[in-house]
Amino acid sequence: MIESINAAVFQRMVIHGAASINALKQPINDLNVFPVPDGDTGTNMSLTIGAAATEMRKKHYDTVGAAASGTASALLRGARGNSGVILSLLFRGFAKAIKDKETMDGRDLAIALDFGVAAAYKAVMKPAEGTILTVSRLAAARAAGCARSESAIEAVLEAAIEEGEKALAATIDMNPVLKKAGVVDAGGKGFLTILQGMLDELHGIPMPQCDEDDAGEEKADFVQMSAEEITFAFDTVYIIRKAEPNVDLEPLRAYLNSIGDSLVIGEDDEAFKVHVHTNIPGAALTESQKFGTLELAKIENMRTQADDLAAGRKAQSTDDLEAIEKELEEQGDAAPVKAAPEKKFGYVAVCAGQGLEAVFRDLGVDGLVGGGQTMNPSTEDIMKAVDATPAEIVYVLPNNKNIIMAAEQCVPLCEDKKVVVLPTKTVPQGISAMLAVDPEASEEENTANMTEAFSNVHTSEITYAARNSDFGGFAIKEGDYLALAEHQLFGTDQDIWTLLERLAQDDTHKNAEFISIFYGEDVTEEDAQRAEKIFAAACPNAEVSLLPGGQPVYYYMISAE
Question: Which residue, 48, 338, 365, 469, shows the most beta carbons closer than 10 Å to its own?
Fold first, then answer.
């Protein structure tokens, strides 16, 4: 029985825990009972602890306290979604308890688990039973009981997991929605999966295989994907040396989004790296050279790679950029852009879609963070935008209820600016808040005005069912159209026009003065105009506006004021 561990063992345990949840993230995702596509729990938790695993591989720590602090810091910055933020809080409290410890035994572990639970409960405004909080609390309580008679860390961790499994099984009866669906809580399952991975490391069990620097990142399985299913054939990666340090890459971002997908642009003061899937890589390179000098490029045909893998052959690849890309990324991480305050107020908004980005830019938003439903940005992603905003006070608009907690973690992290997080849950709420901005007002007045403005916005959305479900009295089939009103299921139908008609007839819209309809990337202008006519006919007293949002996942976002 292992009595205690040092820093190196703890680091391996974190890496093993990350690999374990990465291997099981899809089954954990499948526990989500709400049928709307969302930033799934397994993926969010995997990405969050994956950031810590990457940190543990890079650095050597002399004490277990220092290793735990490094883990907590990486988790906080990498936190995605509410489940990821809660996981980071559990480890933050954990690290605080053992910050001065060179090694950790069972009693230290029990105290650390208890500190973690306290930190998580303190940060969650309305803790709900039948969640990761319940599972972690009962697991920590059992660990404390075990530690009173047993000092071995292995025994205490085993006891915590054993009790946690019982608590997880009981979550079905604690939450009516879980009970109806017949599943346990996804966050609790993810937490225990990580703890089990950490215990497996102590037991000498080999960790599940995953790419070393990719503990949480999903990758396409080309063996399962036919070449015809690949919309954009060329995986295009290149590095451009900037013509000037502060060059604005937003026009390039908009152009590349128009000719491809899977776009990622990373940058530092001297260069930027682009990753994009497109059918016209030459055009991407030509446009990018307007912003600097092309240094290196890698272009791979994913269709031929898919054919090769499907036939059992080794796919051809060019890996010449790997070392250089990694070096650039590390340089970027080491020297994030920090803008000195040039004005009193600045604004950062989270959204997805070129049209929505344009709306926020027109309203004066300084920094845009890509994300929303299905793609929750991390605390670090938001923090980078805050750092780059040249203002004394930076307002952050999360625009999604699953991003608010990640945004709030920026408040203590920012040392040279004040961060104010307005808990906007939808993009229309964020837009309404920006419309209420008064640059000459005080912080208190601005906060009050913006809060009042977004509080008066009612948001409805049209999306699709990602899975079969019996939810809220609706028998839902995968692919059905879903209407949401303030995140609650309003209705479902196989015909989108029937659903829009019912939504337009709702009192919320019929009594509104202003209705704004943002249509998504999968909606044609002709269909959007048809939707506008439906609302104009049903709501004759309202001023109805139609705008291209370009957002993914949601066919329509509809705000009523």
Answer: 48
d(CA 111, CA 286): 58
| β pairing state of 104-105 and 260-267 | unpaired
Give the span between the Cα atoms of 285 and 272, in whole angstroms: 13
User: DSSP secondary-structure letter at 370?
Assistant: E
296 within 8 A of 240, measured Cβ to Cβ: no
Query: Looking at residues 459-473, what average pLDDT do you find?
Result: 78
The helix (H) or strand (E) run that includes residue 82 is helix 81-97
The pLDDT of residue 310 is 55
Beta strand 260-267 pairing with 234-242: unpaired
Amino acid at 270: E
**Placement of tokens 């230290």 in the chain:** 108
Provide the angle, in degrees to the nearest 10, between the axes of the packed helices 153-174 and 186-203: 160
- 19-56 residue pLDDT tens: 999 999 988 888 876 555 544 788 889 999 999 999 99
Pair of tokens at residue 228: 């015809």
Residue given tokens 């704004």 in the structure block: 516
Q: Is pLDDT above 60 for 338? A: yes
Cα separations (Å) of 155 from 94, 224, 261, 318?
18, 42, 49, 48
- Sorted by sequence, the CB contacts under 8 Å of residue 58 that are 6+ apart come out as none
> C-alpha 484: how far from its chain's center?
21
- DSSP character for 447? H
**Cα 503 to Cα 464, 493, 510, distances in angstroms:** 15, 12, 10
Q: How far apart are CA 120 and CA 115, in angstroms?
A: 9
Query: At residue 228, does pLDDT exceed 50?
Result: no
Name 378's bridge partners. 80
Per-residue pLDDT at 327 exceeds 60: no
Assess whether pLDDT exceeds 80 at residue 508. Answer: yes
As a whole number of angstroms, the distance between CA 85 and CA 122 comes to 13
Helix (H/G/I), strand (E/B), else coil: 46: helix
Q: Are 78 and 68 in contact (CB under 8 A)?
A: no
Q: Based on the number of CB atoms within 10 Å of its own CB, is 89 exposed (0-12), middle (13-18) or buried (19 or more)? A: buried
Q: Which of 170-184, 208-222, 465-479 has the lowest mean pLDDT?
A: 208-222
Look at the block and give the residue holding tokens 């205690």: 4
The amino acid at residue 150 is E
pLDDT in tens, 243-255: 887 888 888 988 9
Write down the pLDDT at residue 31.
Answer: 82
Q: Is the pTM of this model over 0.85?
A: no
Answer yes or no: is pLDDT of 283 > 50. Answer: yes
Do 396 and 407 form a contact (C-beta atoms < 8 A)? yes
Tell me how far apart the alpha carbons of residues 418 and 482 are, in angstroms, rounded to a whole number: 39
